[in-house]
Design goal:
Blueprint: H1 4-18, H2 24-44, H3 53-91
Helix pairs in contact: 1-2, 1-3
Length: about 110
């Protein structure tokens, strides 16, 4: 019989993979907390029986897919940060016109 903690690990991983874009950050945070608790539990009391090969394969594939998802998100964030830095550096040194400087000076003066 499979350890229920491993099945919970798989459920959490699948939940993270199936999260919609709108609530992905919140789901990833919850999944990370749940997986940390499970990891601590598994380290303190390892499974007593061997894991079924099918479950091991499914866990491995799900974790690999989650790794790819997180890498993709990290790449997107790095790209957006680079764009923001570019915009920020483009505005450095810019000084708006003074409020007391006339916009038009007549030659008749």
């Amino acid at each position: 019989m499979d350890d229920p903690r491993l099945l919970d690990w798989l459920k959490l991983t699948k939940r993270a993979l199936e999260a919609s874009d709108e609530n992905r950050a919140e789901v990833l945070r919850e999944v990370a907390l749940g997986r940390a608790e499970l990891q601590t539990s598994l380290e303190q009391t390892p499974p007593t029986s061997a894991v079924r090969p099918e479950l091991a394969t499914e866990l491995s594939e799900a974790d690999a897919a989650l790794g790819r998802l997180v890498s993709g998100l990290k790449g997107e964030i790095e790209t957006r940060i680079a764009e923001l830095r570019k915009v920020q550096s483009a505005t450095k040194g810019y000084r708006p016109a003074r409020g007391n400087t006339p916009a038009f000076v007549s030659r008749s003066i």
